Recover the amino acids of this structure.
């Protein structure tokens, strides 16, 4: 749910201005007022098990120097279930959302002023903030407004945090929503803020893309417990396949259809690559500081996305070391730069060889959305290559100082050879497709 500039016929239930939600909106406003807070609803979530929606809105953070995202609605029980029999409550879920910086030359920015000619407080800025979605996203944020942009898709199933002002020079200003913590000594610490969430309970999954094998945003990297991990991820052009189409049109862009590239002016809300980037970035942000990692992207040798994260080129690095976490996330987010036709094909062998030769690593996450373009020796990949390839790596595993647990993730396809590889190396195989999403959404 959101406040939309135009509501499509049949989508009236997603409009926050709908009469059925007014009582909830009023109640959340009163709850915030009782705590001497402000609550500006931005988006909401309506679930089958609840008669009333859960609303998310902007407010002021605890030290009054920035913004916060608050949640208002039915409380959660200790077992994770919603309890609608209790009164709704309001609470902060994200603190320290940044304040947008001045984009003009030094000295040319003026603070927003109220009717009395005084600088507006952050509360006054929130009160007057435009949160109407236009072209499936919130308005471009200006000086002193919250550094938070939000996007959805035409079916209102996606919530994604985006660049609050894409018109800014990316070399001078942040290219994503961000958090900004300010200490008592006025020390400023800034962190990028990533989120992409998709409502997977809808049974109409086939409606969201042209490719029957479209992969929805899900838990790609499961059971991450190791302290010595390699991530080997697909950077090929097929990762440009669109998962969720928007309802608006803009500049023409190139996507993978499942068998060929095509261009479209229809805005894509989420591609396979963006889904991977969100999953892996969120995981990297959450890993404990003592976890050592390596990240490598594979495509065609010599092509744009056939490369490793520079800091881990010579081995694992501790994610908590100075600047490493930020650098790792920046590498992941660079994988969708340029035209997908330049990204390359599916050649995972260099990355797999490097992973099995690295005796420090004990866990590998290997993700691909397609069959290899060639076998290990450069010949045509055939079904009879499955067993010899798996045998090669499982035999190599027997010569290592410790077994490399190889977890494989197949996006949008069934991959017998990846499944066998995991089985032979004590790892897990995950096939992420429509059946996986539908099965997990019903549990």
């Amino acid at each position: 749910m959101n406040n939309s500039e135009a509501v499509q016929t049949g989508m009236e239930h997603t409009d926050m201005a709908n009469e059925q939600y007014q009582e909830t909106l009023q109640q959340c406003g009163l709850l915030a007022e009782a705590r001497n807070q402000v609550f500006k609803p931005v988006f909401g979530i309506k679930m089958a098990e609840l008669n009333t929606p859960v609303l998310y809105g902007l407010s002021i953070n605890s030290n009054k120097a920035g913004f916060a995202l608050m949640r208002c609605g039915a409380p959660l029980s200790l077992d994770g279930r919603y309890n609608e029999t209790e009164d709704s409550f309001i609470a902060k879920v994200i603190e320290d959302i940044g304040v947008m910086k001045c984009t003009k030359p030094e000295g040319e920015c003026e603070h927003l002023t109220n009717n009395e000619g005084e600088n507006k407080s952050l509360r006054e800025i929130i009160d007057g903030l435009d949160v109407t979605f236009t072209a499936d996203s919130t308005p471009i944020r200006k000086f002193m407004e919250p550094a938070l942009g939000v996007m959805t898709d035409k079916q209102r199933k996606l919530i994604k945090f985006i660049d609050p002002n894409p018109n800014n020079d990316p070399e001078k200003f942040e290219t994503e929503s961000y958090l900004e913590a300010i200490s008592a000594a006025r020390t400023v610490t800034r962190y990028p803020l990533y989120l992409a969430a998709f409502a997977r309970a809808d049974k109409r999954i086939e409606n969201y893309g042209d490719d029957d094998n479209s992969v929805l945003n899900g838990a790609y990297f499961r059971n991450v417990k190791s302290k010595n991990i390699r991530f080997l991820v697909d950077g090929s052009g097929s990762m440009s396949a669109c998962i969720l189409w928007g309802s608006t049109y803009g500049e023409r862009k190139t996507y993978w259809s499942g068998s060929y590239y095509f261009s479209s002016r229809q805005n894509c809300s989420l591609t396979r690559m963006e889904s991977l980037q969100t999953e892996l970035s969120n995981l990297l942000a959450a890993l404990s500081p003592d976890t050592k990692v390596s990240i490598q992207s594979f495509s065609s040798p010599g092509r744009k996305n056939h490369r490793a994260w520079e800091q881990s080129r010579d081995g694992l690095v501790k994610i908590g070391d100075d600047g490493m976490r930020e650098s790792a996330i920046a590498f992941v987010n660079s994988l969708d730069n340029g035209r997908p036709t330049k990204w390359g094909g599916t050649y995972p062998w260099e990355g797999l060889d490097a992973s099995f030769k690295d005796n420090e690593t004990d866990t590998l996450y290997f993700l691909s959305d397609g069959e290899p373009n060639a076998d290990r020796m450069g010949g045509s990949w055939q079904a009879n290559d499955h067993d010899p390839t798996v045998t090669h790596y499982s035999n190599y595993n027997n010569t290592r100082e410790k077994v490399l647990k190889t977890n494989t993730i197949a996006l949008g396809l069934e991959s017998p050879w990846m499944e066998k590889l995991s089985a032979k190396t004590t790892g897990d195989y995950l096939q992420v497709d429509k059946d996986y999403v539908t099965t997990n959404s019903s549990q």
The radius of gyration is 24 Å. Helices lie at 22-34, 122-127, 272-286, 324-333, 349-357, 386-399, 416-424, 434-441.
